[in-house]
Amino acid sequence: MSINAAITGVGMSDIGRKTGRPAMLHLVEAARRALDSAGLTRTDIDGICTYPGKADNSPGMSPLGTGEVRNALGLRTRWHSAIPDGPSQMAPIMVAAMAVATGQARHVLCFRALTESSSQTAAQRASIPGSGRARLGGWYSYLVPANAMSASNWAGWMATRYFHEFGMTREHLGMVATGQRAFARHNPAAVMQAPLTMEDYLGARMISSPLGLFDCDVPIDGACVVIVSAADAARDCARAPLTIEAMGSALESQETWDQRADLTTMGAHDACADLWSRTDMKPADVDVLALYDGFSIFVPYWLEAFGFCGHGEAKDFIAEGHIGPGGRYPVNTGGGQLSGGRLHGFGLLHEACVQLWGEGGGRQVKDAKAAVCGMGGGFIAGSMLIRRD
């Protein structure tokens, strides 16, 4: 039931904190690596797509648009798109897959570039909606009186409700954070390499109760490129294509974090149910999990949404060791965004591809053939199932 699209190459720039490098240098480096990965040249690329497009609503969050990247890389494209409103950060990958499946392009370069780390100052904080602006409207205007302008506040609300309903504790989230740090220590590209103990985790400063410092992803400078190709074109690429088996993007709630009927679920639950309805594969067929971890609390939500455990059962699933090194369902084997660095989901998909190509080094999952990737938090989500034939 797969669509006629595959991932044929991925590339990531040398990421870091406070690099001072222009976003375009990161992007060009990632693009070259992705093209080399796929065995393609820039003349093969006839489509380009990104999330969310060039924007100035948060420092360093999206400094590059499709036009300037196309010009910098010397591309001549038949199709292009930027997706500010769609199924999370996964939107450009999904739209690119539909573009190649319908003949709009043969090889689409999808990119995400950030300079959030270098762009932050005391007055200009990355990922704070409206940071540095005088006026906000819509849902955000209701958050101003509560001084709740950070997504850490909203994720903290979710975690508090989930803790109350199902008895999850900070130690359970600590297992998520320490497990991903253990993976990161085998990933030379990860920005956080030092060992992280449960004592370290519990002793770190609180950010938005019950979430502490190590429950939050790490802002970085960097870029990631994913090349999506038509199925027939993919057969001519340098490595085995990774077939996009299914995608899910359903949304059945209001587009706010706090008005969902069941606050112990996210948009992920809608998107994942949509995905499984489009394939004969099952969770038991999956070897690698790439789950959006803007905050550690998102991981148990995604585990339940994808059906790896029942609703409210994630704490036990985590405690039993299923998601860490050596577990049956390893999560975020590159360190995720908690330790690898925040590329808004693109880095997670990059790692899933690395695993399916058997290039994970000391963190490689044995005989990995299929992976799920989920991106987004709160009401917004996109899900994808990819496999190596």
TrEMBL record:
Pfam families: Thiolase_C_1. InterPro entries: Thiolase, Thiolase-like, Thiolase_C_2. Residues 253-381 form the Thiolase C-terminal domain. Gene3D superfamilies: 3.40.47.10. GO terms for molecular function: acetyl-CoA C-acyltransferase activity. This is Thiolase C-terminal domain-containing protein.
